[in-house]
Specification:
Layout lengths: L1 H29 L2 H11 L7 H20 L4 H27 L8 E2 L4 H12 L10 E2 L12 H21 L4 H16 L3 H10 L7 H20 L4 H23 L1 H12 L2
Parallel strand pairs: 1-2
Helix pairs in contact: 1-4, 2-4, 3-4, 3-6, 3-7, 7-10, 8-10, 9-10
């Protein structure tokens, strides 16, 4: 009887630990962005956060979702990718809204796709049929404005195009094992480069004002744990190598926090009007 109770208790504890670990895996990935989201909402300033961080994670997690169809992995990781994509769209929506609010002079709008009536207007104007001023919203694939659009829908449209093209290619090559493995590697490597856009943004401004230090600390802790897990579990080399690269980029960002601390403090005083 004791043996049965012990077995049942062990099974229950095992399930609880498994569910707890799965929940931590899903929630832990998005947790670092909560302080950054709150900081942007509180200060109404999105200039210190690089939207390319969102692009990096959207691409990495979309590739990971496609990889699941070719090579099944743990379901919590799949759910984590879906939740992360939703979180990144929430971050983008906030940043776009805040930047629009802060415009003193209304700037020309940049969008990923032109509306049908705007396209017709532009074509008519080129042919001399339609007069009047050019529309303020127009289609532009200039890389200078890529991922710097002024409306949220453009970011959704861009990722929708990427997802549909990726799904179509994956469907055609799903039986080709090297292609499936390549998707998995690109997903891991893209995620490993997560910190690079933020490093570039900090270097450009010579300041970390607007960036949540709590977010970066949580990145670092999560990446250290993840890399250690890969090493202990003897995961394929690309996993722990990419994890190590992530940790290195996190450390560089933390070094920037220290190196630009005086500029950051000055920028903060300027924003507060001190």
């Amino acid at each position: 009887m004791d043996w049965i109770i012990s077995d049942e208790l062990g099974l229950t504890v095992g399930h609880l630990v498994g569910w707890g670990a799965a929940s931590a895996m899903i929630v832990g990935g998005v947790a670092p962005y909560i302080p950054q989201y709150r900081q942007i909402k509180k200060t109404q300033d999105a200039e210190g956060f690089s939207l390319y961080v969102c692009l990096t994670l959207l691409i990495a997690n979309t590739l990971r979702i496609l990889f699941w169809f070719g090579k099944r992995y743990e379901l919590p990781l799949l759910i984590q990718s879906i939740v992360m994509n939703a979180t990144m769209f929430a971050m983008i929506h906030l940043c776009v809204t805040v930047k629009k609010k802060n415009q003193i002079i209304r700037a020309r709008e940049r969008i990923f796709t032109a509306q049908p009536d705007e396209t017709a207007h532009w074509l008519g104007q080129r042919s001399g049929i339609v007069g009047g001023e050019k529309p303020h919203r127009f289609y532009d694939l200039d890389r200078k404005y890529f991922w710097a659009w002024t409306d949220f829908q453009s970011y959704v449209d861009c990722m929708l195009v990427f997802s549909v093209l990726g799904a179509a290619i994956t469907y055609l090559l799903i039986e080709f094992s090297p292609f499936v493995e390549l998707i998995g590697f690109l997903a891991v490597f893209t995620e490993a480069m997560l910190g690079a856009p933020q490093i570039a943004k900090n270097y450009q401004h010579k300041s970390t004002e607007g960036m949540s230090v709590s977010m970066v600390i949580m990145w670092t802790c999560g990446d250290l744990f993840k890399t250690a897990y890969f090493v202990i579990r003897e995961a394929p080399a690309q996993f722990w190598l990419c994890g190590s690269l992530q940790v290195l980029l996190d450390i560089i960002i933390l070094f920037q926090v220290w190196m630009y601390r005086h500029n950051t403090a000055a920028a903060r005083r300027l924003r507060r009007g001190d």
